């Protein structure tokens, strides 16, 4: 679909309508256009403001429904929304700015017949990539670059998918469009399906925030799904973030993304820990998971099994490439989706400096997907309150890519002169200081304001496993 003439408000209205939510709620939305942001030919600023606005409007609608009130006024500034789309890069901890979360050997590399991008933030992905390249641990970026030249880009991509590394070939729009996976990506970025019938159910009505009393179990790593949990927490949900003691973490990202969440460590392959998880899920409202499609089904956590356990549960899934298609089971991250889908090539061509690729100025697909997943969750809460039932929500990074591409590109080089935010000093107006489990944390406030209702985080990041697996209320 061609959405080249859409404004951010048009995007909100369009997606709101596809979710079959009451159109009257749109009258409560105030989008402030206070500048042009993000140097890119793609409309990343549009995506930021519209997705954050959608998540807030859905939360406000649910609040109004369960309290039998009118939807309060929501205000989202374009600048503040864009700042929040870079929140994991703009915090300050104990006076020191956020360090880079990127590994030392990844990024864009020249192959024998093109280019590839490698993701190496997690040790297992780095190790598997080095094995494929026949390199030892401790290899430098120069070592990797030399070995990459022995491979054709598509051959390396195929091998990486098969052997647990995260490497994709750089493609143009045309090359991406020729793949079956491109056709398999859903046309809409939020998919909501009723997983089971049931009676209308609101859940707890305690508390003054939009989602106060809503219980969320989050099992995720890396930006997108954590943004969804963090957003629900900003609106008052009780979010328990479950991590595995057997998997590596990314503390530099977690310092921002863990705001609003209590932290529990469980090994779900251990029967006692699995029982603790199931006990939480039995009385949860929402389960967010960011693993590859079907990954948790082998642990007894399929949609069907979860709904049998809790017939009022909303299951929210975040994937890289979508639910369908030959790439559905492949690993993927924001930067890889940008590379494989033609976004990086198209941005470089529009910039006109002869670069093979140009990355977006933020992790736009991660953040966009996170806010859209939160929107889907809260829309499902509304549907559960009105119609009853359990629901499944699906959002993918590739789906967000497809949507931002449908918005078109700014003409010629006009998009590249837009304002960016590269250091905390650029965004002081939007930062708040709080004491965390790691010291003083100065981080980006949530960009959505709701009239008469406090929005923000009551819990600050703390060491993993600091909390007990039990709900705050009931």
TrEMBL record:
For this chain, one GO molecular function annotation is:
transferase activity
Respond yes or no to whether keyword Transmembrane helix is given for this record. no
Q: Which Pfam families match?
A: CoA_transf_3
Spell out where the chain crosses the membrane: none
What InterPro entries does the record point to?
Answer: CoA-transferase_III (IPR050509), CoA-Trfase_fam_III (IPR003673), CoA-Trfase_III_dom_1_sf (IPR023606)
Record keywords, A-Z: Transferase
Q: PANTHER family this protein is in?
A: BLR3030 PROTEIN, SUCCINYL-COA--D-CITRAMALATE COA-TRANSFERASE
Family of the protein in this entry = Belongs to the CoA-transferase III family.
Q: What is this protein called?
A: CoA-transferase family III domain-containing protein
């Amino acid at each position: 679909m061609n959405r080249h003439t859409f404004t951010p408000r048009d995007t909100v209205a369009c997606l709101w309508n596809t979710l079959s939510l009451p159109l009257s709620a749109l009258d409560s939305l105030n989008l402030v256009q206070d500048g042009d942001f993000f140097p890119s030919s793609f409309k990343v600023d549009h995506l930021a403001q519209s997705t954050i606005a959608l998540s807030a409007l859905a939360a406000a609608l649910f609040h109004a429904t369960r309290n039998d009130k009118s939807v309060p006024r929501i205000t989202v500034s374009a600048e503040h929304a864009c700042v929040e789309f870079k929140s994991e890069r703009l915090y300050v901890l104990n006076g020191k700015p956020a360090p880079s979360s990127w590994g030392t050997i990844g990024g864009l590399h020249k192959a024998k017949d093109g280019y590839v991008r490698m993701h190496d933030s997690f040790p297992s992905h780095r190790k598997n990539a080095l094995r494929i390249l026949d390199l030892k641990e401790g290899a430098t970026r120069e070592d990797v670059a030399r070995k990459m030249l022995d491979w054709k880009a598509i051959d390396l991509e195929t091998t990486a998918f098969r052997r647990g590394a995260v490497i994709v070939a750089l493609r143009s729009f045309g090359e991406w469009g020729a793949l079956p996976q491109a056709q398999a990506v859903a046309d809409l970025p939020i998919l909501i399906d009723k997983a089971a019938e049931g009676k209308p159910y609101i859940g707890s009505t305690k508390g003054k925030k939009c989602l106060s009393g809503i219980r969320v179990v989050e099992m995720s790593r890396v930006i997108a799904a954590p943004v969804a949990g963090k957003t629900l927490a900003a609106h008052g949900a009780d979010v328990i973030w479950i991590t595995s003691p057997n998997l590596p973490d990314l503390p530099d990202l977690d310092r921002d993304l863990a705001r609003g969440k209590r932290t529990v460590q469980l090994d779900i392959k251990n029967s006692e820990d699995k029982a603790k998880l199931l006990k939480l899920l039995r009385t949860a409202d929402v389960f967010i998971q960011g693993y590859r499609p079907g990954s948790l089904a082998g642990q007894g956590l399929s949609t069907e099994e979860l709904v049998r356990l809790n017939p009022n549960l909303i299951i929210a899934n975040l994937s890289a490439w979508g639910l369908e298609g030959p790439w559905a089971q492949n690993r993927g991250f924001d930067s890889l989706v940008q590379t494989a889908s033609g976004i990086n090539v198209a941005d470089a061509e529009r910039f006109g400096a002869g670069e093979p690729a140009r990355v977006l100025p933020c992790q736009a697909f991660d953040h966009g997907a996170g806010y859209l997943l939160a929107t889907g969750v809260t829309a499902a809460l509304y549907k559960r309150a009105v119609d009853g039932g359990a629901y499944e929500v699906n959002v993918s990074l590739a789906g967000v890519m497809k949507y931002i591409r449908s918005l078109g590109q700014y003409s010629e080089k006009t998009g590249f002169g837009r304002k960016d935010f590269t250091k905390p000093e650029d965004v002081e107006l939007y930062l708040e200081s709080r004491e965390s489990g790691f010291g003083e944390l100065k981080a980006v406030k949530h960009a959505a304001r709701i009239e008469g209702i406090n929005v923000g985080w009551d819990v600050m990041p703390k060491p993993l496993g600091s909390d007990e697996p039990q709900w705050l209320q009931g």
